[in-house]
Amino acid sequence: MNPRRPISGGSATKDKAAAGRKRARKVARAMKQSLKKQGRQRVNELHEGRDSFEKLSSGRLQQAAQELEVGGHEPAAEAKVDGLVVSVSRKGCTVRRAGHPDERLWFNNAVATAAVGDTVGFDPDRGADRALSVVRERRSSLSRPDPFEPALERVIAANIDVGVLVVAPIDDELRTGVIDRVLVAMQRGGVQPVLVVNKCDLLADDAAVRAAIAPYTGLGVHVHTCAAKTGLGVAALREHVRDKTCVFVGHSGVGKSSLLNALWPQAQQETAEVRSRDGRGRHTTTASRLLSLPGGTHLIDTPGIRSFGLWEVDADALRGWFAEFAEPAAQCRFRDCRHDAEPGCAVRVAADEGTIAPARYAAYLRILNSLD
Ligand SMILES: Nc1nc2c(ncn2[C@@H]2O[C@H](COP(=O)(O)OP(=O)(O)O)[C@@H](O)[C@H]2O)c(=O)[nH]1
Ligand SMILES: [Mg+2]
Ligand SMILES: [Zn+2]
User: Fold this and answer.
1) For ligand 1, what atom is nearest to the CA of residue 301?
2) Which ligand 1 atom sits closest to the C-alpha of 228?
3) Which of 7, 18, 202, 227 has the fewest Cβ atoms nearer than 10 Å?
């Protein structure tokens, strides 16, 4: 068993792990002192007019730096096979490959962390010590900043064809704030957005909802009005997601899990099974999970998002993700107009006149201000 990857936390493995950490700290201290010393030496030598670069890049130093970089963890094992990541926890992930039961992989800190939907390489012969060797290049991804550590990217799902954003009206009203943000994130990540308005069975009057979704239809976003409870619109949505990898995102309680269950009865069975095993409530999705359906459809259920931050989107990029601004923006007085309070902003005029949906312009300003 690999002592650096304790599984059952026995005291012997703990001691070894502690010793490993101690060694790593010692190397780090020695490195720091050595670099300091060499730095001083270098300055002295430069002062004396001698070039000491050769000395600085000595092989030993490079080796020590490499050891530091991987944080004292095992170098990655050879990636003998590839698997699809179907769920992720803090310490590792579960991968699926044809003809095998799901396998658990530990995250090797020397390798990038994987997300649900990733293809990852590993060595299956390592038994319970199997660790992630490589994360294959992603063709698309949906990311947001970690809510607690905004400098960290949280990849919600990778290699997605369709991003299904689920929203639900409350008292016949639809709050659209999350839609504009998620649309930006999906476009940025190369994910085709689809908007699902669920719980339409609860609508007494659909006028406000129709008005709220009109701008998105105008942008070419597919909008499905559904009710997981009655089956309304479910068949059309099923055709839309068939044979694709789709991630379902949206606020908690809008009916993401219910929609998945309505879409495929097989999904329901799997859901019930997983939930009874870990003893969690039937309606709480606490971690993202990928369901593989016959014929190559992959559906990813995610926990509810409370607020959706934007990963690596600055003011310049943001303008570009509001596609309907492009045409009027050509008439703005300033080429780098932020379409905020600048004089001669044609985008603002277009919003005033209704050529651009005022709600979209308001959403843009809200996001812009949240970036500053
Ligand atoms: N009336 C109505 N209730 C629904 C519908 N879809 C889901 N629900 C209910 O909304 C609650 C939250 O559903 P759930 O699927 O767990 O939401 P999630 O948090 O987005 O996964 C549950 O009580 C569902 O029964 C719907 O179309 N109509
Ligand atoms: Mg759920
Ligand atoms: Zn402008």
Assistant:
1) 21
2) 27
3) 18
